[in-house]
Amino acid sequence: MNDRSSYTLLVSLTVALGGFLMGFDSAVISGVVDPLKDHFDLSPRQVGTAVACLTAGATLAMAFAGRVADRFGRKPVLICTAALFSVSALWSAFAGSYVELVIARVIGGFGVGGALLIAPMYIAEIAPPEKRGRLVSFNQLNIVLGFSAAFFSNYFLEQHFKIAAPTAADPNAMAVDPAAWRWMLGVEAIPAILYLVSLVLVPRSPRWLAIQGRFDEARTVLAKTGGEGTADSALEEVRQNLSAASQEASFGELFASRMKRVMFIGLGLGFFQQITGINAIFYYATTIFEMTGVGRDAALMQAIYVGLVNVVFTLIAMWLIDRKGRRPLLLVGTGAMTVALLTNAYAFNAGTYQLSGDRLAATATDLSKKAAGEEGTPDFEAALAALAPLTEASDSHKEFLLAIDGVVAKEKPSAPALAEAIEKAKGDLPKKALQANGDLILMAILLYIAAFAISLGPVMWAMFSEIFPARMRGVAISAAGFFNSLVSYAVQKLFPSGLAEFGPAGVFLFFGVFAALAFLFSLKVVPETKGKSLEELEAQLLG
Predict the structure, then answer these.
(1) Which of 434, 463, 487 is the last residue of a domain?
(2) For the domain that residue 299 is a member of, what is the CATH number?
(3) What is the longest distance spanned by two Cα atoms in the chain?
């Protein structure tokens, strides 16, 4: 590797650290959902908000990040994202209320939105055409490394903060120190500050410099990344492209007839990347695995497997994306995603719902404490007796919910506090009662993660950075990213309510149907972009 390649690689890796922070900030919540729910006494809807508020902030940021980057440059926006990540991590760790936590995570979402859009844009504008797909994919690699790091961090911090917590059912029971979730959320400040410092060393985007008329500076950067021999020709190509479209881009132009094809491709990829459930699985990984009957420790460990598979197959995608192209990866990946999601729907549908053993004892203990409140004495035996109808197997999620309603109705006259506690726990009880084929579900989820990691994960962002014309790139990526994030927010927000209402089988069937539609979209609509300069693609797709 020559000096120019090393320099381009170093700059790309530095900028892509924003992806690491985005991945960490997104996945870390999977390990703290239950602690947050207990600490702030959250309903399923509030849990959905606590998880999805990060994406809400990202959605807002995406609405204007591209325009801001077009006006002030890619580098200043990335520096702002690093500062936002730092503030969000520390504030989340010290949040004194549910509202504070939501505000802190929305601020982190602003950082996510900026990094998610601007980092791949910057890398695409600085990379040579023959290496662009691989270098842009560094951003996706860092996202999945951030996911994996968050899963590791959650597991080891929870193990570190284990304390003795004897109960009537188990005198040797262990619990997690209430401070653990604060450490899980706050540790992100370390890489965020590192990112903030390292961004000072990267150059401005050469194409942004050219747009501003700063051609000498643009040529200097192009010479560092592509060599003196190609700097002049690359700059001339950019200048010719800019002279053909010299006016400032506007949002209204996205709806012009010449933009219909690229916007349909971009919005379609953004929609399918999220509606197939990737962030629901990442953000609620621990919850999903706990449903299969494994304990919390095992669920956290299985989330680590998800992170590792994600990293390995993202590396495979980076190796293949400039060799095989974007479209073949999409077809293979979305096909495998469809199989995996429908397998999960089948596995969950074949399960039964029955409270028994340790789960019954733990549920009775928890409910008795909540029913007693601060003044009463927890009555474990009364809660255990009330839950007796739920120890009989139910064949479906709906049947089990009806059984819970029967328990509540029976207990209300004689034990209203206990009935209220059971009713409030209605969304969580199916998760504790479900008995399904955990091995099959784990394998199907790992297949889904692998398939996503070689297809919609990296390919969407690579194509976002390629298919839009230079003058429109900032506003177009903002629009497509905003839509992508809006769909992600809806999926994350509604996932807990969907589980409570339709059960995991219904939710995974929903995702599987859209994965099949994503395959058809990739087959019929998405073009190949590998090996072409950004200017060539502009002429092809808008000509």
Answers:
(1) 434
(2) 1.20.1250.20
(3) 86
Residue 207 in domain: no
In a shared domain, residues 153 and 52: yes
DSSP of 127-184: S-GGGHHHHHHHHHHHHHHHHHHHHHHHHHHHHHTEEE---SS-TT-EEE-TTHHHHH
Q: Are 47 and 493 a contacting pair, CB within 8 Å?
A: no
Query: Residue 523 is part of which domain span?
Result: 11-202+268-350+437-542
- For residues 115 and 62, state if they share a domain: yes
Q: Which of 66, 31, 36 shows the shortest CA–CA distance to 49?
A: 36
d(CA 191, CA 188): 6
The answer to whether 512 and 338 are in contact (CB under 8 A) is yes
pLDDT of residue 274: 93
User: What pLDDT shows up at residue 375?
Assistant: 43
Beta bridge partners of residue 176, listed in sequence order: 162
Residue 228 lies in a domain: no
In angstroms, rounded to a whole number, what is the distance separating the alpha carbons of residues 93 and 410? 42
What amino acid occupies position 281?
I
Nearest to 527 by CA among 466, 477, 471, 484: 466
Would you say residue 251 lies in a domain? no
Closest CA to 292 of 415, 440, 98: 440
pLDDT at 384: 80
**Cα–Cα dist 122/221, whole Å:** 12
What is the CA 74 to chain-centroid distance, rounded? 23
Residues of the chain below pLDDT 50: 374-376
Amino acid identity at 371: A
C-alpha to C-alpha distance for 518 and 276, rounded to whole angstroms: 8
* DSSP H or E stretch at residue 338: helix 326-349
The CA distance from 477 to 483, in Å, is 10
446 and 419, same structural domain? Answer: no
DSSP string, 222-240: HHHHH-HHHHHHHHHHHHH
* 412 and 486, same domain (yes or no): no
Give, in order, the Cα–Cα distances in Å from 472 to each of 58, 155, 245, 444.
21, 43, 9, 40
Tokens 């008329």 found at? 213
Whether 167 and 366 have beta carbons less than 8 Å apart is answered as no
Residues 233 and 257: beta-carbon distance below 8 Å: no
Last-in-domain residue among 434, 469, 489: 434
Tell me the pLDDT tens digit for each residue of 138-184. Answer: 777 788 788 888 888 888 888 888 776 665 555 666 666 778 889 99
Q: Which residue in 141, 152, 16, 148 sits closest to 457, CA to CA? A: 141
CA 278 to chain CA mean position, Å:
7
Query: Domain count of the chain?
Result: 2
> At which residue do the structure tokens 């190609």 appear?
230
* Alpha-carbon span 30 to 159, nearest angstrom: 16
Answer yes or no: do 58 and 122 share one domain.
yes
